[in-house]
Amino acid sequence: MGPFPISNGNAYILLAIDYVSRWVEGKATKTNNAKVVVDFVKSNIFCKFGVSKAIISDQGMHQITTAYHPNTNGQVEVFNREIRKLLQKMVSPSRNDWS
């Protein structure tokens, strides 16, 4: 998600969602390029939960391979909306303290 106004050097939020349990892992990052995404998946997903059989991408510009099932990204969009709502409620009017 993003870019957002820079907060603590961060402009993006990376999210990973388990479609079965609906568990969400997220992290504020400076960029959302492929290296950042791969490092996020390795350290926040594979190291904690093991290697996944499939990864579904939102087809963002950081994408490394094609999306598995683009039509299942509705759940991601719901989480994105909810996070945006939470950020709008929690941040100051200057919107520079979200991360």
From TrEMBL:
SUPFAM superfamilies per record: Ribonuclease H-like
Top-level division of the source organism's lineage: Eukaryota
Family matches, as Gene3D superfamilies: Ribonuclease H-like superfamily/Ribonuclease H (3.30.420.10)
Any GO molecular function: nucleic acid binding
Record InterPro entries: Gypsy_RT_Integrase-like, RNaseH-like_sf, RNaseH_sf
Name of this protein: Pol polyprotein
Species of provenance: Mucuna pruriens
Top-level taxonomy: Eukaryota, Viridiplantae, Streptophyta, Embryophyta, Tracheophyta
